[in-house]
Amino acid sequence: xxxxxxxxxxxxxxxxxxxxxxxxxxxxxxxxxxxxxxxxxxxxxxxxxxxxxxxxxxxxxxxxxxxxxxxxxxxxxxxxxxxxxxxxxxxxxxxxxxxxxxxxxxxxxxxxxxxxxxxxxxxxxxxxxxxxxxxxxxxxxxxxxxxxxxxxxxxxxxxxxxxxxxxxxxxxxxxxxxxxxxxxxxxxxxxxxxxxxxxxxxxxxxxxxxxxxxxxxxxxxxxxxxxxxxxxxxxxxxxxxxxxxxxxxxxxxxxxxxxxxxxxxxxxxxxxxxxxxxxxxxxxxxxxxxxxxxxxxxxxxxxxxxxxxxxxxxxxxxxxxxxxxxxxxxxxxxxxxxxxxxxxxxxxxxxxxxxxxxxxxxxxxxxxxxxxxxxxxxxxxxxxxxxxxxxxxxxxxxxxxxxxxxxxxxxxxxxxxxxxxxxxxxxxxxxxxxxxxxxxxxxxxxxxxxxxxxxxxxxxxxxxxxxxxxxxxxxxxxxxxxxxxxxxxxxxxxxxxxxxxxxxxxxxxxxxxxxxxxxxxxxxxxxxxxxxxxxxxxxxxxxxxxxxxxxxxxxxxxxxxxxxxxxxxxxxxxxxxxxxxxxxxxxxxxxxxxxxxxxxxxxxxxxxxxxxxxxxxxxxxxxxxxxxxxxxxxxxxxxxxxxxxxx
Length: 647
Fold this sequence. Notes:
The protein is of the alpha+beta class. The chain is built from 21 helices and 27 strands.
């Protein structure tokens, strides 16, 4: 009895231990490590059953390795326990009956005794591991975003240790990120550099707000200053626990801004030069009796901007027309301004009715005498860079064309029979050279001839030399269509490359001639008695043309001009009437002395004739030739006659 009573407390104690084990709040099991029951569960707590979704009675006798599976790479904890080691590992299990996947943290320890036993505790680490995995995934995505950025980005904790850096950081400082994580600025940079970086970080943490500023250039940073935006990373309570930074090389940005500003300024200058160029070119070519005209201006595709190419069509007296094409060497607004000055100078000289060679001589002298200096850059552009010009006068009464060149390419001529050739025009020196004369040629152009005037940018493209360009020009003109506008387009298409290096001006004209019944000519004897006959002849001619309304004024004009020619000039004297868009009266003589207007005093017997002529007519003027001079007067046609001509 005594012996039985001694063992009974042990059994009671063993039962108490089992009950306590089963009731333990920690999910745990007692596992055998040896014998036939090796790896089987001998005891299980209710909390373990709750964790796995089973009753504790169902767990007893099950192999632990059937209930949980180790993560890949984890060592066998039971083998380590059999060797007498305490172990911990990560494993997975499936909860019943919902089949939920669990991530468990296993901790086990050997128990002393005759048989190898171990206590195994299983903690549910699903949420923590899921959070850690999400954090790692978030960090990986954040790292990818940071690496994609061209800015320098890093994150440091409150103690200044680097947590994340991007590839730009590695490239800037030459440190692989593996060597950076966990380090501080003092571990990576010289002390004075680290102090500058840490000071800004401390300010961000202390103020708990973002700070933008320029960080100093250092020996490490060879690119120059960087603009950094540093900001706090806050926890759920709003307290900063880390510092993030985004840094940009402002040296590159400033260079880009400077380049953009330069490009903007150049674009503005180019646009201004182009606008100036177009404003100085003819805004729609005037309708001419002498010629049909079409023109093109094509600016170069060059960073230097537009050049100084231009063309012009200027009406002259006696239904004649001046055809002009010129080129100021160079590009930009000064070349355009210089072109404008030259064009206006040519127009002014054309009003004097000079022959082409004389006009170029005056123009050359004008360029030579242009002032130079910063206040006259347009003039300096002409004198320093040079300019060329071709000036032609076509007379539809005679069908003759007089041409002179100042260093400019000669025009191409296509006759009505389809033959095309380059006119042999003596090429004088460019404008501004001085010291050499200019020569004119005079050619008869049949009615319907095509004359092409151009600048050297048309024939001197990058893809061919000038001789080839001239051949292409002649071939294209030979295939010309009736429309001059279309002909211009065909010439440009045939000759111009995709990207022009020089501006191009092109002027194509088709010659016309006045009909014989539009012109009337009378030779006058140098006798005052011939004045009356001249008046009668003019009146009769106006009646033939149905212009009787103009007879009175025309008689006064003829009387005054013929009287002056007989009295003050030299024979031969000729009176000519031309009916076109206007009525033109011309008196020619062999004298080079021109009359001029003057104000007659009260008792003067003469001096009022030209004043009356000027007041009663639209325009008048004088032109000179090698044989003398011609005084001409224009009158507008009556409205009914003008309307019928336009219709």
